[in-house]
Design goal:
Blueprint (H helix, E strand, L loop, with lengths): L5 E4 L6 E2 L1 H14 L7 H7 L4 H8 L5 H17 L6 E2 L3 H10 L3 E5 L4 H10 L8 E3 L12 H10 L6 E5 L2 H10 L2 E5 L6 H4 L4 E3 L15
Parallel strand pairs: 1-4, 1-6, 4-5, 6-7, 7-8
Antiparallel strand pairs: 2-3
């Protein structure tokens, strides 16, 4: 018997590489407002706590009206171009297939709005793998709060000790630890090592999940 029954996945920087599309949407917002474009590495640092936080990080001196205009520009452009260059990381589809065939339940907990999560997963033909998808607008709180994870655990009637959170940022690791689940940090995502070094396990590619002790038969 395996040590866990449920794996909760972050989306951006964990299952999908969406940085180019996020950078395009960010620069559409900035240029439309007469601001200089951001580099890809700068946008990497803006990502992690949803679209509003991205806009705030990209325009730290913006007044309220400009911030709202920028957020609207970002969201509308991002929705139209959300899978222009976004793709699954190598081995993701095969890993999800193997996990499902092994009898594990899978879920997504993201700080992207749930409709956009669903659109990406459907377009990339991975939506059918997940028992549920929680987005930034699903609840009053988002990661690093543990509440989105705890809701999934309650809804699926799975105790925390039988679950794991997989993600690339401090938001994922902090939420997982606060929820009492195993934490698995992805070194290939957007967050730096300083964000995920406290995880219970680190993986350099998603297929490495299949080799972790907690997923091996006892």
């Amino acid at each position: 018997m395996k040590n866990i029954d449920l794996i909760l996945f972050d989306l951006d920087g964990t299952l999908i590489n969406s940085l180019d599309d996020l950078a395009s949407a960010t620069n559409h917002m900035l240029l439309s407002l007469g601001r200089p474009a951001a580099t890809r590495d700068q946008v990497r640092g803006y990502v992690g706590q949803g679209a509003r936080r991205l806009a705030e990080r990209a325009m730290p001196d913006a007044v309220a009206d400009e911030l709202e205009r920028g957020l609207s520009l970002f969201l509308s452009y991002n929705e139209e171009h959300i899978v222009d260059r976004t793709c699954l990381y190598p081995g993701v589809a095969e890993t999800l297939t193997a996990l499902r065939e092994a009898g594990l339940t899978l879920a997504v907990v993201s700080n992207k709005n749930v409709a956009l999560c669903t659109k990406v997963l459907t377009t990339l033909k991975t939506g059918g793998f997940f028992a549920c998808v929680i987005g930034a607008d699903s609840l009053a709180e988002r990661k690093p709060s543990p509440e989105p994870l705890l809701k999934v655990l309650r809804d699926l009637d799975i105790p925390p000790e039988r679950a794991a959170m997989v993600g690339d940022s401090i938001n994922d690791i902090a939420a997982g630890k606060a929820a009492g689940v195993v934490t698995i940090g992805c070194t290939f995502g957007y967050g730096g090592m300083e964000e995920i070094r406290g995880a219970d396990y680190l993986i350099d590619s998603l297929p490495e999940l299949l080799e972790l002790p907690l997923l091996l038969e006892e």
